[in-house]
Specification:
Elements lengths: L3 E6 L4 H9 L4 E7 L3 H5 L9 E2 L2 H10 L4 E4 L6 H10 L3 E4 L7 H14 L3 E3 L7 H12 L5 E9 L4 H7 L17 H11 L3 E10 L1 H4 L9 E10 L4 E8 L7 E6 L2 E6 L6 E6 L12 E5 L6 H8 L6 H13 L9 H18 L6 E2 L6 H7 L26
Parallel strand pairs: 1-2, 1-4, 2-3, 4-5, 5-6, 7-10
Antiparallel strand pairs: 7-11, 8-9, 8-15, 9-10, 11-12, 12-13, 13-14
The protein binds nicotinamide-adenine-dinucleotide (NAD).
Length: 400
């Protein structure tokens, strides 16, 4: 019997992981769930296991079959309550972003992990591209000197037709997602490379006329969102949430007092560029600019599999880290505390943006006194299925 007996909840994004999990010898997909029958049935070609349209039946069947883990790939803003139910049923949880959509949910998630003793990790994949892994190596080698500054820019532009296809109903999260909320693909790599935690955040956003034209089905018509942070080592960081800027790349950059290194952007996918001041260049470097091609060739057989996997190999490495954690007890970088810290940055950067960049302390959810302060903070931009319950605007105020 496989060590990890997992269920997958949500099979749209979940399809990618169903395929990857089905390829792992020590993982068995026990059952899958999606309320969209057509999407659910289409998974038959990848995995032959029972399929459920309701979460309760999915969980109950899984429990009866010794399911010990769940992959959450349901709606962005609804992960926490399902994560808690799975952990209370004795299962470990790997969750798509974001871990929590309110500060109260950050508290609930942390306390559920503590109470149940179950494992929780975020399926954040952008840190694990070959270029971002190489950037991390460079940062950790100390070559850059004392870290001063970093940036993470995640762009996801799309045609109106594509946005309509992804925003499946008037209350769907993609139509109400403030620009800073989808933050993990920009901030996650920076935290992973530098090993730092955010302490303070200030956010800004900017209105887009192009997105405003889509206001009959999307209410989040800002085109750019930014979060500026002070980290716990004193460095400063600027990241986008998910922006819709006219740009065809994402990029990551870490700058120290001796050198700076970057990936993506103008230098192209898979390349990493390091730049030294003239006087800080090491004697054995031929030039003060070094450009390397990053790939997975030093990662052996797994590297070969990663090179063929989606999101520049990131999805493959997420599954490997899940196996390391759930089966072998190796702690993941994106544990519950780092995961809720990222959610809190997205939430608070948005509150800040609505107040012209007010600086806000990121709660340290390890501390009970801090958790007590936020346990009733349920403010959300997301409406429920009936279109009710949103208490925070999804875009900056705008008058034509
Ligand atoms: N890491 C990445 O690169 C990446 C890429 C795409 C999406 N995502 C994340 O994956 C998650 C899902 O996004 P998506 O692209 O699949 O779009 P989506 O959120 O529209 O799809 C969610 C799926 O879950 C199902 N679902 C939702 N609630 C359900 C319920 N209560 N019962 C049964 N089924 C339910 C829906 O029918 C749908 O098929 C989101 O959190 C998103 O942020 C991550």
């Amino acid at each position: 019997m496989a060590s990890i007996r997992i269920g997958v909840f949500g099979v749209w994004r979940g399809e990618t992981y169903i395929k990857l999990l089905a390829n792992e010898s020590d993982v068995e997909v026990v059952c899958i769930c999606d309320k969209n029958r057509e999407r659910l049935d289409a998974m038959e070609k990848f995995v032959s296991c029972p399929r459920f349209t309701g979460f309760d039946e999915f969980l109950e069947y899984g429990r009866s079959q010794g399911m010990n883990a769940v992959f959450l790939a349901n709606y962005f803003n609804q992960h926490t309550p399902f994560a808690i139910r799975c952990m209370e049923a004795g299962m470990d949880v790997i969750s798509e972003c974001t871990a929590a959509s309110t500060l109260a949910e950050c508290v609930q998630l942390v306390e559920a992990v503590k109470r149940t003793g179950r494992k929780f990790m975020l399926a954040e994949n952008y840190p694990f591209s070959a270029a971002n892994l190489r950037l991390r190596e460079i940062v950790r080698s100390g070559e850059l000197g004392r870290l001063l500054y970093a940036e993470g820019e995640y762009n996801h532009t799309g045609s109106p037709e594509m946005l309509k296809r992804l925003t499946t109903d008037p209350n769907h999260w993609r139509g109400w997602l403030p620009r800073t909320y989808y933050i993990t693909h920009a901030l996650g790599p920076v935290m992973f490379m530098t090993g730092t935690m955010p302490k303070y955040v200030s956010g800004r956003a900017a209105h887009s006329d192009v997105l405003y034209e889509l206001r009959d089905f999307r209410r989040n018509f800002d085109g750019a969102g930014m979060a500026f942070m002070e980290m716990d080592n004193g460095m400063i960081v600027r990241v986008t949430g998910c922006t819709a800027m006219a740009s065809d790349y994402s990029r990551y950059r870490v700058v120290g007092d001796k050198a700076g290194a970057e990936a993506g952007g103008y230098i192209g996918g898979g390349k990493v560029r390091t730049f030294w001041h003239g006087h800080t260049k090491p004697a054995d470097e031929p030039s003060n600019v070094r450009i390397e091609n990053a790939d997975f060739s030093s990662y052996g057989e797994k590297g070969e599999r990663a090179a063929k996997s989606s999101h520049s190999g990131g999805d493959f490495w997420v599954v490997q880290r899940m196996i390391d954690y759930f089966r072998d007890g190796i702690d993941p970088f994106f544990d519950v505390y780092r995961s809720v810290a990222m959610s809190a940055v997205g939430i608070l950067a948005w509150r800040s943006a609505l107040h012209h960049g007010k600086n806000i302390r990121i709660p340290d959810f390890r501390k009970k006194a801090v958790r007590d302060r936020y346990r009733n903070d349920c403010g959300t931009p997301f409406p429920d299925g009936e279109g009710k319950g949103a208490t925070i605007p999804a875009a900056l105020p705008w008058k034509e």
